[in-house]
């Protein structure tokens, strides 16, 4: 059966939008918003209405009526921690996304989708936001009660890739033990135990391998001493962790392909940094065998950096003794959201209710 799915994914100065027929992309476009355009809006609701109108104009250009849509899927934002799944966009979710102290463009997606869905008289949903939290109780204990481990990772892409792999081998995701590695601007390595990510590094500003822009795990004592030295502001310290850490800090660029190309031909600095990244990723993969009780069906490597064959081959050499390694290059959030919308429309899953919470 044909299903028309609208997918919405806003960024700080753009809104990605696509229309799918089931899992097949019909139209896609990145709607660019200039700083001058956005600076006209004093209130957030005004900017969201502007973005909504741009999406509606896109649909009109493609001759897609709102009444043609079967569901609207939006990228999930930084709401409260929730279990994996598809969630209806309702007043509770919209309230928390508006009130959350953690500001990000993804927080706007649900509101834009909700308004368009109401006009089209269909459901609006989010799926597997970065705050998906399925950690086991033992994984939450960090070493100090004031700093429990928090689950922030590339849940949407990791879950979509895991389900795609399961479908490929004619298995259910809920019966597999997988280690999924997302190699992108941030790097996350998750232990997927029978459908739940029971352990994963905090990929935003916490732990795990360094990446093109993030520092990953650092010597905490040295970080604290630097923070109180008076040499840096809070913003500068945070930028060391996210934005100006990792490859950027060592090499002055976050272009992983450029760095890989130089490493392949033996450029010393680039090779040293890439070998360290490979080492850290492989070590993180090995650590995730513990939550899976040393029974791993497959290791799946995904994300933008997974296009680099030299890189993925080097990682594979270090971890192939654990399980077969499969590569799923790219991070297609739009496709992953469409995949989840299709699961709803095919009655393979039922949207959950978010529920209200205090931050």
From TrEMBL:
Enzyme class: transferase
Catalytic activity line of the entry: butanoate + ATP = butanoyl phosphate + ADP
InterPro entries registered for this protein in UniProt: Aliphatic_acid_kin_short-chain, Aliphatic_acid_kinase_CS, ATPase_NBD, Butyrate_kin
GO MF annotations, alphabetized: acetate kinase activity; ATP binding; butyrate kinase activity
Keyword check for Transferase: yes
Gene3D superfamilies: 3.30.420.40
SUPFAM superfamilies noted in UniProt: Actin-like ATPase domain
Subcellular location: Cytoplasm
Pfam families: Acetate_kinase (PF00871)
EC number: 2.7.2.7
Chief localisation class: cytoplasm
Coiled coil: none
GO biological process terms held by the UniProt record: acetate metabolic process
Any one Gene Ontology cellular component term annotated for this protein: cytoplasm
Keyword annotations: ATP-binding, Cytoplasm, Kinase, Nucleotide-binding, Transferase
Family (UniProt): Belongs to the acetokinase family.
NCBIfam families: butyr_kinase, PRK03011.1-5
HAMAP family the UniProt entry points to: Butyrate_kinase (MF_00542)
Protein name: Probable butyrate kinase
Organism, scientific name: Flammeovirga agarivorans
Gene: buk
